UniProtKB/TrEMBL annotation:
Its cofactor is Zn(2+). Its EC number is 3.5.4.4. NCBIfam families: aden_deam, PRK09358.1-2. The keyword Transmembrane helix does not apply. Residues 16-355 form the Adenosine deaminase domain. This is adenosine deaminase. Signal peptide: none annotated. Belongs to the metallo-dependent hydrolases superfamily. Adenosine and AMP deaminases family. Coiled coil: none annotated. It comes from freshwater metagenome.
Amino acid sequence: MSLTKHPTPEQIKRVPKAVIHDHLDGGLRPQTIIELAAEIGYTKLPTTDPVALADWFEESCSSGTLVRYLETFEHTIAVMQRREAIIRVAREAALDLARDGVVYAEIRGAPELFTAQGLTLNEVIEATTEGFKLGMADAKAEGLFIRVEQLLCALRQNEHSDEVARKVVEYRNRGVVGFDIAGPEDGFPPTIQQSAFDYLRQANAHFTIHAGEAYGLPSIWQAIQMCGAERLGHGVRIIDDIDFSGPEPKLGLLASYVRDRRIPLEMCPTSNLQTGAAKDYASHPIGVLEQLRFRVTINTDNRLMSRTSMSNEMIQSTQAFDWTFQDLQRLTVNALKSAFIPFEERLAIIEQIVKPGYAAIAAE
């Protein structure tokens, strides 16, 4: 069967992809940052050369700590305080993903970050949605298909979660499909925002939670068992609940629960290498977790900070784990099965775009 073949990097660039963990303010084009900074007189950029700026972001984010990684967002957030800037960034994000073969994307952002100069949460959300629509239209004009939806983030160290959760419900079916909390895990457990999660569950709204990235199993347990997370942002530390000392891996109670309940893991290998969650691709837990048939998905996290793309994530992981077309298709289907859009709409993308696309490219 052709899907059992190993894809070339060129073929990986063309296969249909789905990303469900991608941050809007972590995916700007370097040239866009420079131009937006010039428009508002922002002079704190380390350089105005686009290549050197891309180098600076990647190097600054490779310190091995999540805290240092998050500090780089000061610059991208600073240039995204105007409606026009948000529209441009969202538009370019949708088009850049489409050009990389992505057919479905859930892009997340924290609206509160872009209100420093007077924008309201509603204006930020609506500008983002408008940008995505324009980007989807740009992609269509280039003969590409992509569907982009928005996740609203609250920051776990702040106190806006309840308000942002209400916005998720208010803008449901108007470009917003779910909720997330992001920011530093250590010292800010997800249970701090318990009221927001209770509200979302009662409103039948979808949400994911950043957990098990920089902090360990307690973060994952709280996200699932206390807060009711449908998906785990990263979730890489679930590997700590698997015993590899014997002839066969032995799953602990939490790892078994996550696998048995098919709780999706939004894994971002390159980002995890930068923040110290893994030392290289070959040792990243995504390989063994995929073998053990967890609901693994592969994602970009922050395309600028990690200087990555969905194609790069797939290429690096394929080389590290000897994945075939079948493995990549399974991860793509996992992402779509885990998407926050209605079941029949997920199924349509899987059956009409993903499976035919993989079959055609693998048959070459």
